[in-house]
Amino acid sequence: MENSQKGFIPVMLTPFLSNGNIDYPALTQLTEIYLQAGSSGLFANCLSSEMFELTGKERIQAIKHVIKVVNGAVPVVATGTFGGAISDQADFVKEVSDAGVEAVIAITSLLAEENETDEVFNERVFNLLDLTDKIPLGFYECPVPYKRVLKPQQLADFVSTGRVIYHKDTCLDLSQIKEKLKLTAGKTFGLYDAYIVHAVESLKAGASGLSCIQGNYFPELIVWLCDHYNDEAFKDEVQVVQQFLIDNMDVMHNVYPVVSKYFLQKRGLNISTFTRRNVGSFTPSIVKEVETLFDDYTLLRNNLNIKVFI
């Protein structure tokens, strides 16, 4: 997913009905919002999608639904590894690939236990590559069940196979990101940073774009940042946006994704706040914080003349 322009890859939510079933009409509308905002790709079946709470059949159905709605407008990536024997993980990778994704994403923390060495991890990655034909793969340093961050040289070794084209980075360390970018330069590969705190610096360092939960509140703002991060004419505005995102980190992470679904309700999306994952109570004080966030964002969006579709 290499691109000369910086792009935003939303980590997609899964809307649910009040009875807990996937709400496919809302998923259609949500997908269209991401596209209308200018997203350059979509990451379906990820942690924000509550992938661990979906059945294997639901994962495939949701991925296929997103791909159908997208209709080739942008590439879609999706998670395809959920633990167990590498041969079993390879089988599901093939199933996800057959759904029509650009690349299948491997969860780093599900390829080796927390106490297992990098050597064990590397061996399993190369085994997975061997067992999945020529399917393009990517990595996601998902914090669940634990966070396993790839070392720069590890990532470079995997990318050098020509099979790894995508990486969602959650190391939170700009120096590590710079080293990863240095070692993978010139490859058909894109590193997308999840950590909004150093978004501008990461983009300036050469990251292909951003893939952050903030896009489940205001995707058009993240697209705007990717478009203008290095534009001297918008230098002051870029700093305002970066600071806005930093200042509201805690609000957007608290009882997520309930909070983002509530925010999308306020934007006019017909989506429930139902989640299958137990993330805690959506208290009145949290509601008030999200409503303040909505008001502050509306003001910021108007000041930047950002067009929204809902």
UniProtKB/TrEMBL annotation:
Catalytic machinery residues: 140 (proton donor/acceptor), 168 (schiff-base intermediate with substrate)
Native species: Pedobacter kyonggii
PANTHER family xrefs: 4-HYDROXY-2-OXOGLUTARATE ALDOLASE, MITOCHONDRIAL (PTHR12128:SF66), DIHYDRODIPICOLINATE SYNTHASE (PTHR12128)
Keywords carried by this UniProt record: Lyase
InterPro entries: Aldolase_TIM, DapA-like
An example molecular function term from Gene Ontology annotations: 4-hydroxy-tetrahydrodipicolinate synthase activity
Protein name (database record): Dihydrodipicolinate synthase family protein
UniProt cross-references to Pfam families, sorted A to Z: DHDPS
Keyword Ion transport: no
Family statement drawn from the similarity comment of this UniProt entry: Belongs to the DapA family.
